[in-house]
Design a protein that fits this description.
Enzyme class: lyase
Family: Belongs to the DeoC/FbaB aldolase family. DeoC type 2 subfamily.
Low-confidence stretches: none
Organism: freshwater metagenome
Mean pLDDT: 94
Shape: globular
Number of strands: 8
Structural class: alpha/beta
EC number: 4.1.2.4
Distance between the termini: 46 Å
Number of helices: 12
CATH topology: TIM Barrel
Order of helices and strands: HHHEHEHEHEHHEHEHEHEH
Catalytic activity: 2-deoxy-D-ribose 5-phosphate = D-glyceraldehyde 3-phosphate + acetaldehyde
């Protein structure tokens, strides 16, 4: 079934389509996510999983106190997570506020990271409460400064009020700005969507409007990337691919801090969307502290002992 034959972007067509989606079995989703979270990973697979998780990290700093020096240090770490071990993969992207994109791009270019993506949060992140001209300018500024990925937030107020056409239109406008210039990740802020049914509906609206990725959250609202929420989103991209032939990525962000957390995410991906999604092109983890724990666990597997926490830089 081709989505463009049933969705024209109008409120009526969106509501008609969303009405056809099956409801989410809340108990079933929670039980399956909990069951998958108990899966053990053997050492050989764990070593591969750690490197895969590192390559999927969107290394992030989104604080009002961010400075150019902090962003440069983050970029250096993202490109060479362990300067003593060249076999450690680089991260998936560096994620910053759009006023820091130019700093990040200039520094990465200077140290050989020309092709390391920079993701910028835009459209009045994290609230999404601004006029459309402001959201457009926000996005254009980020791309002009060198962002190759745009993490936009949806208008949750419009979504919860049932104004699906407004949410769709805003995503489509930002997508049109991004075409051939940047990948678009659409942040649903699942902690504010209340129900799993809403998470599924918002996922489909974003995908229908042209998202390259759907992302759980800003990291500023709790709960964020819970296992059942990520499961529902992975089911949505899997089913959307079956329906349209288009693969959409998922970014889990917020609350993923340990290697154990990250591996649970990889198990969810493999068992829900399938191994095709086990690539940085289709799955990312938005995090800051996570990279340090992944590096510590990697050192433990390599050397048989834990290094001092001071061995890795503090973000």
């Amino acid at each position: 079934m081709k989505t463009d034959t049933i969705i024209d972007g109008s409120e009526a067509s969106l509501k008609n389509f969303l009405h056809t989606l099956p409801g989410v079995d809340q108990v079933g989703a929670q039980a399956r996510a909990a069951m998958l979270g108990t899966r053990s990973v053997k050492n050989a697979a764990k070593a591969h999983a750690i490197d895969l998780a590192i390559s999927m990290v969107d290394l992030t700093t989104l604080e009002g106190a961010d400075t150019p020096g902090k962003v440069r240090a983050l970029c250096t770490k993202g490109l060479r997570p362990d300067p003593t071990d060249s076999s450690v993969p680089r991260v998936g992207a560096i994620c910053v506020y759009n006023d820091m994109v130019g700093v990040a791009r200039q520094h990465l270019d200077a140290i050989g990271g020309h092709d390391l993506p920079i993701a910028a949060v835009t459209t009045a992140f994290p609230s999404g409460r601004a006029s459309m001209p402001v959201k457009i300018q926000d996005t254009q500024d980020a791309i002009a400064s060198g962002a190759t990925e745009i993490d936009m937030v949806i208008d949750r107020g419009a979504f919860l009020a049932g104004r699906y056409g407004k949410v769709f239109d805003e995503i489509k406008i930002i997508k049109d700005i991004c075409v051939e210039r940047a990948h678009l990740k659409v942040i649903l802020e699942t902690g504010e969507l209340v129900t799993y049914d809403n998470v599924r509906k918002a996922s489909y609206i974003a995908m229908l409007a042209g998202a390259d990725f759907i992302k759980t959250s800003t990291g500023k609202v709790s709960p964020a990337a819970t296992a059942p929420v990520v499961l529902v989103m992975l089911e949505a991209v899997r089913d959307f691919y079956a329906m349209s032939g288009i693969k959409i990525g998922v970014k889990a962000a917020g609350g993923i801090r340990t290697t154990k957390d990250a591996i649970k995410q990889l198990v969810l991906v493999n068992e829900t969307a399938g191994p095709q999604w086990l690539t940085p092109d289709l799955f990312r983890i938005g995090a800051s502290a996570l990279l340090n724990d992944l590096l510590m666990q990697r050192m433990k597997m390599r050397d048989g002992r834990y290094a001092s926490p001071q061995y890795v830089t503090i973000d």
